[in-house]
Amino acid sequence: MAALFAALPLILPSLETVGTIATIAGTAVTAAGTIAAGKNAEASAKFEAQQMEAKGKEEQAASQREADEYRRRKNLALSKLQSNSAASGFTATDPTALALADEISKYGTFQEQMANYGGASRRAGLEDQAAGRIMEGKAARRGSMYSAAGTILGGVATMADRYNPKRQTSSTPSYRYG
Fold first, then answer.
1. Mind giving me the DSSP string for 103-164?
2. What's the confidence (pLDDT) of residue 3?
């Protein structure tokens, strides 16, 4: 039994060795975690960007339906004007009826164009936001790589300090005045 206890220092690693292994493992785990966080941030940003782009397409489609509804109302108003004019005894070429029809047509077309413009503008804004999110994701991933590199270098520096302690220098100069 005494021989077993005598051999333990040869079998079990020293605390210094355990500390070294723990430092290396901790550095590796921290670096891997930092890289994984950057990759996840990039993936999340890409997904969010895809959602923004889809919402932009939906906004534009909704504005096109809105423009179609304005066109329908414009045509209905023009038809009603023609019907009322005919019922009142006006002709199709009467100046008042033509002026009213022109105003209805202009205003209806303006509403259609504004609806389409609004949808296109909202879509462009969402697509710009999506592009920004993708850039943020890439930057997060790039930053995580630099951070991981810093963690690894910090671990190397810790190991270097542990195995190459700074030498004590005397505070008195080696030369004298006098």
1. HHHHHHHHHHHHHHHHHHHHHHHHHHHHHHHHHHHHHHHHHHHHHHHHHHHHHHHHHHHHHS
2. 61
Over the range 134-161, which residues count as b (16 or more CB within 10 Å of their CB) and which as e?
bebbeebbeebeebbeebbeebeebeee
Query: pTM value?
Result: 0.66
What does the longest C-alpha to C-alpha distance in the chain come to?
Answer: 128
For CA atoms 119, 125, 130, 134, the dihedral sign is positive
pLDDT classification of 162: cutoffs 50, 70, 90: confident
Nearest to 155 by CA among 34, 21, 55: 21
Please, how many CA atoms are within 13 Å of residue 48, restricted to the half-sphere of its CB?
A: 16
Domain extent listing, the chain: 32-160
pLDDT digits (tens, 9 = 90+) for 92-144: 788 988 999 999 999 999 999 999 999 999 999 999 999 999 999 999 999 99
The 3-state DSSP class for residue 166 equals: coil
Among positive and negative, which fits the CA dihedral 124, 130, 134, 140?
Answer: positive
Residues 152 and 61: their CA atoms lie apart, in Å, by 51
pLDDT band at 73 (very low <50, low <70, confident <90, very high): very high
